[in-house]
């Protein structure tokens, strides 16, 4: 039973996607006792999976899965494999390591719509949950995408069968995607997005508290949020429940 259980109400909690940049195995075991029930997806950031011992990766995935958490490698690792013509081997390794999902993205490369669809389809055929990501890693490249471009690509990916589409926000959450240079939401773009896509299928990368609070106030506790730092999971849960001043009484 939770402390102060009499104050807690059932909520429609959205997806919480947490970034693991190389957490130690023993730490993860203790960490999940504190907040494992609030995590839905773990992403092993960018290419970190490729520089860690295979058995350690397998063991850590198993620990997360014991808590019903889906685990996948970062999209940058897919991109690196793809440009090196190793996509088939990439999927085989993901399966052997025990990953539940893969991310199809083109944040650092150029991927045609046809190739994008083919990668999504092959990943689905191999039994993976598939997340895609919309946006570029470099702000100057990302700015070339209009909100209509993002919406069109989100709906394209959903039509191709992805389970969720992530909107790029990076770790900074500034000057990228739906955030301005100060990390504030671009309200008009968010409104357009909300009116033209299935928000339940979108995961907003929202690394900063003000972004998490704003999106919760806009869409409620059911909003899907990603790029959450491992040490911010409990904080985010209090935001979803209105137990912090930023969303008090939601």
Characterise the protein shown here:
The protein is of the alpha/beta class. It has a single domain (14-239), classed as TIM Barrel, CATH 3.20.20. It is 42% helix and 14% strand. The protein has 10 helices and 8 strands. An 8-stranded parallel beta sheet has the order 3-2-1-8-7-6-5-4. The two termini are 23 Å apart.
Overall number of structural domains:
1
Q: How does the helix and strand content classify structurally?
A: alpha/beta
Please describe the biggest sheet, giving its number of strands, its sense, and whether it closes into a barrel.
Answer: 8 strands, parallel
| Overall average pLDDT | 97
**Strand order in the sheet with the most strands:** 3-2-1-8-7-6-5-4
Question: What CATH architecture would you give?
Answer: Alpha-Beta Barrel
Oligomer: single chain
Strand content: 5-15%
Number of strands: 8
Low-confidence stretches: none
CATH topology type = TIM Barrel
What is the CATH H-level superfamily?
A: Aldolase class I
**Any idea of the CATH class?**
Alpha Beta
Name the overall outline: globular
**DSSP helix count?**
10
In angstroms, what is the radius of gyration? 18 Å
N-C termini distance = 23 Å
Q: What is the N-to-C succession of helices and strands?
A: EHEHEHHEHEHHEHEHEH
């Amino acid at each position: 039973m939770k402390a102060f259980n009499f104050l807690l109400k059932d909520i429609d909690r959205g997806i919480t996607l947490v970034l693991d940049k190389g957490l130690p195995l023993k730490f993860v075991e203790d960490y999940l006792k504190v907040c494992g029930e609030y995590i839905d997806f773990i992403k092993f950031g960018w290419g970190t999976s490729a520089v860690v011992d295979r058995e350690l990766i397998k063991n850590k995935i198993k620990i997360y899965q014991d808590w019903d958490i889906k685990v996948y490698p970062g999209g940058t690792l897919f991109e690196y494999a793809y440009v090196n013509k190793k996509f088939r081997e990439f999927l085989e390794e993901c399966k052997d390591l025990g990953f539940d999902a893969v991310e199809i993205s083109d944040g650092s490369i150029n991927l045609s719509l046809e190739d994008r669809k083919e990668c999504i389809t092959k990943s689905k055929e191999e039994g993976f949950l598939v997340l895609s990501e919309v946006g570029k890693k470099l702000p100057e490249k990302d700015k070339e995408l209009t909100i209509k471009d993002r919406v069109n690509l989100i709906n394209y990916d959903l039509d191709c069968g992805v389970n969720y589409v992530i909107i790029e926000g990076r770790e900074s959450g500034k000057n990228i995607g739906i955030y301005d240079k100060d990390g504030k939401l671009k309200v008009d773009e968010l409104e357009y997005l909300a009116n033209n896509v299935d928000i339940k299928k979108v995961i907003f990368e929202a690394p900063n508290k003000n972004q998490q609070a704003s999106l919760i106030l806009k869409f409620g506790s059911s909003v899907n949020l990603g790029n959450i730092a491992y040490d911010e999971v409990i904080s985010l849960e209090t935001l979803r429940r209105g137990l912090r001043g930023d969303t008090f009484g939601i």
